[in-house]
Design goal:
Layout lengths: L1 E4 L9 H11 L1 E4 L4 H7 L5 E4 L7 H6 L5 E4 L9 H6 L3 E3 L6 H16 L2 H9 L17 E5 L3 H12 L3 E5 L5 H6 L2 E2 L1
Parallel strand pairs: 1-2, 1-3, 3-4, 4-5, 6-7, 7-8
Length: 187
């Protein structure tokens, strides 16, 4: 099996293991490329792993004469015409769950940046303003955080909010009430 990886798998926790597994299945070519370059290259491969920046449309799928698998190094697949690929017998797989912690931590990082007014205060410090001239932020302790969706990411955001001793309100009609209890959220 010939496998084309269109983005370097550089994450030190995942990349080496992923490359090891792929090489056990077939011959792997790692060739970073644009979507236009992918259109030309895909014809010679049985499997391709793309990034979210590659739009895998019908013309690219049709160009993959031997294509059996399209993988994406992202959680979502909205950049791939999944329905068309599957109608051609091509399996589409994603890295579902891969970025749960990163996204939740980034969400909380942005929240902290806002409430502590970090960008504004960094600008003042750069301009030589110190001490009482800094704009005070607010504490998260005791504040209420609203979360829409208690899937993997929303649940982890709720857990982080609990560590800050925040009150968590959440809405998600698709998860069991047990999930609300697990993450100490009120609906």
């Amino acid at each position: 099996m010939r496998i084309l990886v269109t983005i370097p798998l550089v994450d030190p926790d995942v990349g080496p293991q992923a490359m090891k597994w792929l090489s056990e299945v077939g011959d792997v070519d790692v060739r970073p490329m644009t979507t236009e370059q992918l259109r030309e290259a895909v014809r010679d491969y049985d499997a391709v792993i793309v990034s979210v920046w590659h739009r895998v449309t019908r013309d690219i799928i049709d160009a993959g004469r031997n294509l059996k698998v399209i993988g994406t190094a992202s959680v979502g697949t909205d950049h791939i015409d999944v329905e068309y690929a599957e109608s051609k017998g091509i399996k589409v797989v994603s890295a579902a769950g891969a970025s749960t912690y990163s996204v939740a931590e980034f969400t909380f990082g942005l929240l902290l940046m806002m409430v502590k007014r970090i960008p504004e205060n960094m600008g003042r410090v750069r301009n030589g303003e110190w001490g009482s001239l800094l704009t005070p932020g607010i504490e998260l302790f005791g504040k209420t955080l609203g979360i829409i969706g208690l899937g993997r990411i929303g649940s982890y955001v709720a857990s982080i909010a609990n560590a800050f001793r925040m009150r968590v309100l959440a809405y998600d009609p698709f998860v069991d009430r047990e999930r609300f209890t697990e993450v100490n959220a009120t609906s």
